[in-house]
Amino acid sequence: MPGEPYLDYPKNEIKKFLGEKPVTAVFIPYAAVTFSLDTYCEKVEERFAEVGHHIKGIHTFENPVKAIQEAEAIVVGGGNTWQLVRMLHDRKLMNPIRERVYNGAPYIGWSAGSNVACPTLRTTNDMPIIDPLGFDCINMVPFQINPHYLDANPEGHGGETREQRISEFLEINPKCYVAGLREGTMFKVEDGKIELIGERSCRIFKKGQEPYELKAGDDFSFLL
């Protein structure tokens, strides 16, 4: 959340999701662009350690695919989604991540890390700074997430609203749902069930329907 220490608001949910037994997750910092992978790992490790868990950067492993195959948990940080997807494709990690998660490893992702859990990166907000070598992502959930969803444009901005951009996506992809996730909220998907966590509502988009709001405790099962 703006004005709070990095990853402070979700840290207790991370602890509950990973459990009481200490876990050392494989952390994928590839979305970092303007700072080093090691710096990113230090930042995330500090917060995870506060709740009794730890991370190890995937770039420190000699064999990244093997690291994913043996991971206790997988964590993917935010940053630039295009850069993240490019590096995941370069290192042939998309399928190994999906397979490891389907075989029981917890997956945690925020911002770009939530985008890549979707079928494609096409609802990211990020500048396309690099050729991602394809838009397909890990595809662990069958809907698209638009992270950091905003209801209105900043003052003085004359471009499209976020809602207009999502409407453009749905014109080309009419069968897909898009979930606009606001700051301070997250999805938890476990045992075939999905729930929204957080005080703010989520905005749901589907071609042919007026966008609508759902809050924590509402039924999101249609997304799966």
From TrEMBL:
The keyword Cytoplasm applies. It comes from Draconibacterium orientale. GO terms for biological process: proteolysis. This is dipeptidase E. One of its GO terms (cellular component) is cytoplasm. It catalyses: Dipeptidase E catalyzes the hydrolysis of dipeptides Asp-|-Xaa. It does not act on peptides with N-terminal Glu, Asn or Gln, nor does it cleave isoaspartyl peptides. Pfam families: Peptidase_S51. Its EC number is 3.4.13.21. It comes from the Bacteria. SUPFAM superfamilies: Class I glutamine amidotransferase-like. Its main location: cytoplasm. It is found in: Cytoplasm. Keywords: Cytoplasm, Dipeptidase, Hydrolase, Protease, Serine protease. It is an enzyme of class 3 (hydrolase).
